[in-house]
Write a structure and sequence with these properties.
The chain is of the alpha+beta class and 401 residues long. The protein is built from eight helices and 25 strands. It is globular and about 60 Å long. The structure holds zinc ion (ZN). Residues 47, 152, 158, 160 line the site of zinc ion.
Length: 401
């Protein structure tokens, strides 16, 4: 039995799989759906849930419901019967444990569930591992990333996927399956990878109608018509794709007419086409990491306390020692600021998390950042504007209250 499903964010049209694909996306307002486009060299990242109790539907419910307040999200969840999709595969999820590193920012993640009854049944467990490898191998083919893909362990050192990593047979079978399904999909594609942007419409893109098309108040055929757009009308996509009444719908803003939703087409073809891309988001820029002995050596002694002065390093950047207790007011990924170890590894901060901002530093764009101890002699930076100051940190030498 073969199933054909349009996977949100996957170029090249419906994907044929040997299992049903269940699409149930994390709501866009959830803090664990950052709404950032994947960037950089695409890869796949395989995980195990490390949860002996759950199958795919339960893990999907967990992540759709906000992951219990954790900054955690991923794209696919596999068991022996289905693969679920909880994030479009052109969006960033928080799963690799490497902050704003390549694991989170460039890869699509699959959680392979490991409910004990399933794992202890050889037929079911083989099927589940194969389903995960099929989804990932075919996704890699569509996105032009040749095997092998990556494991979570490759990005953060975590022992994940724990069952695949710790069993030589399962590990080998996963990568053999992955490569076979990659090859199968490449053949189905005619050995030509689709343009990564082909068929994928982003918020901010401009689309043009190819037929006379109703602009409706809501994305459903029951909603009132605001206007009938004549063929050749341009509109700007201003929201996320939705499915209703057998159609895919795009929320759009039509200059001079208004905002509403249009259906994208039917089985006979598309009713609109992308004519202009949204300008790419600028990559964040940070000052180069340079050794700053005073920063590495500080142990937050009172000597350096708040704003006794500005220390300018030999590249001209100003550092102000503050030892502020800060609280995050928006979800924030700490940027790389390591000196001795350049890997950005700090997991994202969520609203209400607290930290000690040891220093304030101004980057080349004139934006102020707090510099935080990231642990293990690593330092990270977060935008000052993402925080509020709670108090001074208690420092060595302070009297006990
Ligand atoms: Zn993992």
């Amino acid at each position: 039995m073969a199933y054909r499903t349009v996977i949100p964010g996957l170029p090249g049209g419906p994907l044929e799989t040997s299992f049903p694909v269940v699409i149930d996306l994390i709501p866009t307002w959830r803090h664990n759906r950052p709404g950032i486009k994947l960037r950089g060299a695409f890869e796949t990242t395989q995980h195990n849930t490390s949860n002996w109790r759950t199958l795919a539907r339960a893990e999907m419910n967990y992540v759709i419901g906000g992951a219990g307040g954790r900054m955690a999200s991923w794209h696919y969840t596999a068991d022996d019967e289905i693969v679920g999709v909880t994030l479009p595969v052109d969006e960033v999820g928080w799963h690799a444990g490497d902050g704003s590193g390549p694991g989170n920012m460039s890869t699509v993640a699959c959680e392979l569930t490991m409910q004990r009854a399933m794992v202890e049944n050889p037929t079911r467990w083989r099927r589940a591992r194969r389903n995960a490898a099929e989804m990932m191998g075919k996704t890699a083919a569509r996105k032009g990333a040749p095997p092998p893909g990556k494991y979570h362990h490759d990005y953060s050192g975590k022992n994940c996927p724990i069952l695949l990593r710790n069993n030589a047979t399962w590990n080998q079978e996963y990568w053999e399956d992955y490569a076979a399904f990659y090859a199968m999909e490449r053949e189905a594609m005619g050995a030509t990878p689709p343009d990564p942007a082909d068929g994928v419409i982003y918020i901010g893109d401009t689309v043009r109608t190819l037929v006379n098309l109703n602009l409706r108040q809501q994305p459903t055929t029951h909603s009132p018509v605001i206007a009938t757009l004549t063929s050749g009308t341009d509109a700007v996509v201003n929201g996320r794709w939705a499915s209703a009444d057998g159609y895919g719908w795009l929320p759009v803003r039509v200059p001079g007419i208004g905002e509403g939703a249009v259906a994208m087409g039917d089985s006979s073809g598309a009713w609109l086409v992308k004519v202009a891309d949204v300008p790419p988001e600028p990559e964040p820029e940070y000052v180069d990491a340079v050794p700053i002995p005073a920063l590495l050596d500080t142990d937050l002694k009172k000597d350096y306390d708040t704003a006794t002065g500005i220390i300018t390093d030999d590249t001209g950047h100003d550092f102000i020692f503050t030892a502020d207790v800060i609280e995050f007011v928006v979800p924030t990924v700490a940027g790389e600021f390591a000196v001795e170890n350049p890997r950005p590894i700090k997991a994202p901060y969520t609203i209400g998390d607290r930290a000690i901002g040891a220093w304030l530093v101004e980057n080349r764009q004139g934006v102020w950042h707090y510099v935080l101890a990231g642990g293990d002699d690593e330092w990270v930076r977060v935008p000052y504007a993402n925080t509020r100051r709670v108090s001074d940190a208690p420092l060595l030498g302070d009297a006990t209250p």
